[in-house]
What we know:
Layout: H1 17-27, H2 32-38, H3 43-48, H4 51-60, H5 65-73, E1 77-79, E2 83-86, E3 89-92, E4 100-103, H6 105-111, E5 136-137, E6 142-143, E7 145-149, H7 153-156, H8 159-171, H9 184-195, H10 207-225, H11 238-246, H12 250-262, H13 278-286, H14 294-305, E8 315-316, E9 319-320, E10 326-328, H15 329-336, H16 340-350, E11 365-367, H17 368-380, E12 381-382, H18 384-391, H19 395-403, E13 420-421, H20 422-432, E14 437-439, E15 446-448, H21 449-456, H22 460-468, E16 474-477, E17 486-489, H23 490-499, H24 507-514, H25 521-527, E18 534-538, E19 543-547, H26 550-559, E20 560-561, H27 563-570, H28 574-584, E21 589-591, E22 594-596, E23 600-601, H29 602-613
Parallel strand pairs: 14-16
Antiparallel strand pairs: 1-2, 2-3, 4-7, 5-6, 8-9, 10-11, 12-13, 15-17, 16-17, 18-19, 20-23, 21-22
Amino acid sequence: MAYPHFIKPTPKPRETVLSLVSRTAALRGLSVSQFATEVSLSQKGLFNKDLQVLKKVSELFDLSQNSLDELVSWSPSPREGVRMQFRGDEVISRSLINPKIRGCPQCLREDVQDSAKPPSSQMVMRGEWQFEHVKICHDHKRPLVALWNETNRTNRYDYATNLKEIWPKIQSEQLDPEPVDVTSYDTWLINRLKTNTDDTFLGRFQVDVAARFCELLGQDYTEATEVTSETNSLKITARSVGFEIAAKGKASITKALVAIVLNSMGPPSNKGKKTSRHLYNWLAFNSVHDRRYDRLRTLQRNALLDTWPYAANTKLLGKLVKSRKLHSITTAAKELNISSSLLRGLLVGEGIVAENDTRSDARATFEAHKLVDLAVVLKRCVREIEFRKALGCTKDQLGFLVSNKILSPRFDPQITRKPWDLDDAKYLREKLTSSVISINSEDDGWEHIHTAATRRRIDLKLLFDRAQNGEIKVGLMRDCQGYAAIHVSSADAKALQNAIGPKSPTVAEFERSLGLHNSGSLKQLIRGGFTPATELFNPRTARIGLYITESDAVAFHARFTTSKVIAARLGVSNRKVTSVLKRSGTGFFNAKGREFLNVYLLADAEKLIEDRLQ
């Protein structure tokens, strides 16, 4: 097919189909509409990238298939719904279609190289300028500016006509903005658009989804964590902050999302709360039906569930919460129908909430399953009087059980008036009555377990343990209930009393082993503080006496000795040792004007004896 002869401009990098057609129209002094009519091009087909129209454009401009494909890839092509094909991705239409046409005045000015041609025929409209998420000209490090604003689509995309009108402003640099820093986000986005590649986590998403996510995540994060800068040269944009987080992947994103919630005053769904919720609102409302955001919605949902106490069946980002993951002290207290202050004390006591946790009750969270276990225990807990009644013991007996570490309140009595767990009473009874015989009050040889312990001064826990493992017979009094019915064999209790006396020798016994039983010197040394002894209770005598423990004996032998000890060590007679000591003039230990008969300082006596007897 023959077309009117006209000069055919060469497509420039990142140029769009409409830009090429518009520049051609400008060379002929025509508007796009006039040029399209002249060459029988459908303007609607141009806007919609109709295949037949694109074929005709290829023929008009003698374009190779690769050149045509490149032009079309930078030109938004309508798809189903409100989507457009752009640089290999299906993006939302509003990210590309806007009454406001933006561009870089410096790029346009540099395009004009031939003074013989109209400037509007040389200025190229770059495809990335249409994409709302591109904010700067990467080449000139300046923000894109609004060149014109036009609601009529035909007039809006008549680039040559509009550029002709504003050329004086472009040429005089009136439209030039101040330079800005190029951020990692800006570099990532232009490179992705140029190369159609993205090795970051964001490469899994369509470009408009990835860019929007960076922007909203960055806004929330900078607001919640107060990321600021003092000078323009160090300015950190929200988009760049969001990109630096998102590019690293799920773990980085999750950490940031959790930080956003923790640094905010409440969950995004709480109206009136000071929250950073730009991303939440976008995922929950603006893009609620856009399935391309589903993976990001899942990350946001999980981060919220990990930090905020959402109840089961709450609708969160389009899905119902199947089961509660976290409780706050406030929500848990409401569920248990107790005060928040009481519950906090219980949780601290259980180690579920830290004592130094300064978060408010509404924000102090913990794993929900822990409340389930705690609630079961709380339902069993009663006041002391009810616990004693269930156990069948008196107040004094309960106190004795507690002091012997057999029973203890489940919770701190200063926190709750119902600290006693009925299961503890049940367990104690069952533990002692698993193997018992039935007895009557007339039966001789039995006494209540509490009486047996106090009367013989036997540790009650020891008596319980021996009764439980069968070493002491247990009888259950028929006319009594609970703890009151538990009796033990008097003979067995007596035998235990005799068996549990101190294993260490008494002072007198140790004194005899040293050969000092006639002098009383050991007792004098102990009273003078020269050697130690230990007070121990002896259940057999029901008295406290002085005993020489192993450590006491070591202390004595480290400082003192006697002729009997030396004789035994050297295998000679006591008389021979005494004779050697006497002839050498070695005297007894003397301190504070007092002489301790038959007691020698180890340093004075032992070496002397060894030397003399060798």
